[in-house]
Every structure is written in C-alpha cells, then in structure tokens.
Design a protein that fits this description.
This protein is an alpha+beta fold and 216 residues long. It folds into 2 domains: 115 residues, no CATH class; 80 residues, no CATH class. Helix content is 36%, strand content 17%. Helix 1 crosses helix 3, helix 2 packs antiparallel against helix 3 and helix 2 runs parallel beside helix 4. The protein is elongated and about 70 Å long.
Length: 216
C-alpha cells in the first residue's frame, strides 16, 4: 500500500511532540511543507538517476504552426520520436530560422513544443512520442499518496522535515533537540544524494550536460 501524506505528517509530529503533546498545527501548514520537500527530492532523483524515472507519453500536433503541450511540471526532456521511430531535433528558439537545422525539428516555448513547420517537420495530426523525466503528482490533501517510484528509504527525510518544522515553531523547544533534528535531516539528504549518484543506470546513461540535450 502506498504511503499517504497523512502518515508522513503524523510520523513527523510524533517525533516532534514526544515531550510536548499539546503543541498544535494545521493541515494547511504541513501539507505544502511536505510537498515542497517531496518534489525537491523527486526532481533530484529524476535528474541524477539516469533512466530510473524515465516516463513516456504520446502527443498529437495541432494548429498552425503545429504544436503540442508538454505534461504538467515536466522535469526534463530526453528524446522525441515521430510515429516511425525517427528522431526529432529540439533546437534553441534562437536557431529556429537557421538554414542548417535538420528536419524534423521543433523548438520549446514555455510548456509547449512548436514545429518549425517546414517540409519534413511535424505537421498537424502527427503523433509524437516523448521520453521525459516527470514530476510526481502534487501532495495536496492528507489522503494523497506518494508516487510508487518514491523509495521507502527516502521517506524518513520527509518525516524529519516535519519534526524539524514543528520543533522550530515551538519557542519552548530545546535548542539541542533542534540541532539534533537538523543533523539527522542533513544525514538523510547526504544519504539520498549518495544513493542517487551511485546508481548503475545513472552511470551507464548519464544525464547530458547543459546545452547538449538540444539534439536529443
């Protein structure tokens, strides 16, 4: 069963209120707090973990010039393919009028991909396959569940984030306890970075350096 946001928050509160059961908080504080931390860790997993979190979807070009809308809050684009499996080139918008740009080619404008609309470029009705690093669904309610790809071993970072927030919020909390929680959170973050960076698939399929992804 997937872990719910409520379970994360309750675990964090339990860590924080062991000696202070009367301390109060509201869902509106903790839900965004956990979601921000969760989204941050997931983005690091996506970018540093090779193809471990690779997603795929199909999109259909429409309008003139033809364009498609990217999935919500996409982390990064890895590869485009047209229906036959041929590569599509993503070029910087400043180069979209260059004569040496090969077809089929597109450029990115915010959250849309626009065809250069020349012979051989994607046309309205063309179906396009997108390989990309995605973001998880937002944790917006106590019943929200963590993405099944989010490892259980990373959940304690979310729990400690809640505990530290509660400890700092309470003006009567022991400074030593706050320091201990901060150290534990630092350890969790270092562990996450170590595990992500040590992924075999991340080493065999490294994320391209800035600028090199333009020709995927």
């Amino acid at each position: 069963m997937a872990t719910t946001l409520q379970q994360i928050i309750e675990s964090g509160i339990a860590r924080s209120t062991a000696n202070d059961p009367g301390k109060l908080t509201v869902d509106g504080e903790l839900i965004p707090l956990v979601n921000r931390k969760y989204q941050s860790i997931f983005a690091r997993m996506s970018l540093q973990g090779g193809d471990n979190l690779l997603a795929k979807t199909t999109l259909t070009f429409a309008s003139s010039p033809p364009f498609v809308t990217l999935p919500t809050d996409i982390v990064d684009i890895i590869r485009f393919e047209l229906a036959g499996g041929g590569r599509t080139y993503l070029v910087p918008v400043r180069d979209k009028d260059r004569t040496w740009v090969l077809a089929p080619a597109v450029y990115r404008q915010g959250n849309t991909i626009v065809s250069l609309a020349r012979a051989g470029d994607p046309a309205a009705g063309d179906v396009w396959t997108l390989f990309y690093k995605d973001a998880p669904a937002t944790l917006s309610a106590l019943a929200s569940t963590l993405d099944t790809r989010y490892p259980v071993r990373y959940e304690n970072a979310l729990v400690v984030e809640v505990a530290l927030y509660m400890a700092v919020k309470d003006e009567n909390r022991s400074p030593e306890r706050i320091v201990a929680l901060q150290r534990e959170l630092d350890t969790e973050n270092k562990m996450i970075d170590l595990l992500i960076g040590g992924s075999d698939s991340a080493e065999s399929t490294p994320h391209p350096t800035a600028g090199s992804a333009a020709n995927t």
